[in-house]
Specification:
With 353 residues, this protein is of the alpha+beta class. The chain has 9 helices and 19 strands. The strands form 3 sheets. It has an 11-stranded mixed beta sheet, with helices on both faces. It has a 6-stranded mixed beta sheet with strand order 10-11-14-15-18-19, covered by helices on one side. Mean pLDDT is 93; it is low at 5-26. Belongs to the peptidase S51 family.
Length: 353
Amino acid sequence: MKRLKAAGKKAMVCAALVGGLVSFSGVNDVEAASSYTLYTTGSTTDKVTTASFGQVYMGGSTDVDKAMEWMIQKANGGDFLIIRATGSNGYNQYLYDLAQSIGKPLNSVNTVVVTNLTQAGSDSSLIDRINKAEAIFFAGGNQADYVEFLEGSPALTALNSRIQNVPFGGTSAGAMIQGDHIYDAISAGSKTLDSLTALRNPYSSLISFTDYLIQTPHNNNIQTDTHFEQRDRMGRLLTFMARNIQDGEETGTSAKGIGLNEQSALLVEKDGTAKVVTQPGAVNAAVYMAKSNQAPTRCVSGSSLTYNNISIYKLKDGNTFNLSTWTGSGGLSYTLNVNSGTISSSTGKVYGN
């Protein structure tokens, strides 16, 4: 469901092989079809294993090795599928080698680069790969591409079915699509929405949403944002939450948000328990869990946002959280208020400490 229709979705220009199927034998294979290019490292023969659910929200920049190791273990020696709309096969050898290094070798790592966003969602061969994957991960890029590829498609139906039983995740744009509510970046086009713009006008023409795309056991009521503290995105996450309430998608007490700093990941188990892992050497690695306690006082077009009493729980490496009860352990609890577009914090600092 969309809340603001854009005049047109972002077009993707991609230099890729198109036309008939092309393949090359060996450990690293490349296949190109009319809607996607496939890169395979490892076996080209499917292997069926018993995987287990897990969800990874990752904040962007350098990938968190511990999060990928967690997904690999849950994939149980099966086939790991990367989905992206730009880029190439950068994940393949990294994941294949990482699995070997922890004694949990994968049968294969496959990267699908979607080259035709309007056709790939109905491509039977791509849907088959989703159905057979023992782990699925969305790379970074532009979430508008993923929305265009998935929304209303058979591929989305297959994805939502498959990820109930296998590890699933994404980084940057691949994490932006994982909540109930997605800032889809469609109306923004090539422009970047910053916190100041969002707080000054919650109905800025740069803001558009797609709702209820991905379905996992514990992503209800959630809006995500990535590259969080590094790009000062607290203001826009709070604006998104206020919009979710104002637009009738959430109540004053049900809206939630997850803000993910770079090189930081939240690992969610099927029972809703979660932990934070970070990449060694990361600066300001953290995850922020936000919850609304009341409706915004003012959230209208052309006026700055007023929205108070938002609970924040800041998690660092090793801290835990329960998404079912929305409570944490080991982290920092504080409160944010937004008055006429200006954020204040109970700790004196927007990002806690």
